[in-house]
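FAQ: What does the model actually see?

It sees only this:
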Amino acid sequence: MNETLPPAPSFRSLVLSTIAAIFLAVVILVVAVLPAEYGIDPTGLGKRLGLTPLSLSAEQPANVQAIVCSDMAEQWMDSVKITVPARSGLEYKFHLLKGARLEYSWSSDGVKLYFDFHGEPKGDTSGYFKSYKEDTDIRSSGSLTAPFEGSHGWYWENKSQRPVTVLLQTRGAYRILGLM
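And it is asked to produce this:
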């Protein structure tokens, strides 16, 4: 039994293989991972390949953009930008257990919106909901201690002729349900 080992790779071939692997990893990152995971598509190939829609979860649809809070003094737990279409309305919700606390602050980009901050008990099929605050304004803030387990959040209605962006910042004990 006479076994011969293949020759050891040269330093040059190792360097070239490493460079090729890094290049391939960057291409995969830019073309596939960023569009599919984060909705970032610098080349446009992610959209053409059908990868961009994969980044949209139930918590973050196309008209909701997660942002990072740069003001660390405020230390909100979650921040999201929500686009309310012109002459339309939408709901954004959180699931809270009974007694859970939700602190919030939201503001529009200068246009007054009709809003109803309300909650719906888990499992209720009667259509019952409890309004906590209803008004027309460009901003609102406060806190809620949930009187029951269920979905709690806002209905915003935009009566203007242009889309309006809402910045919603929250902290507390909740699970994000997102747009409903």
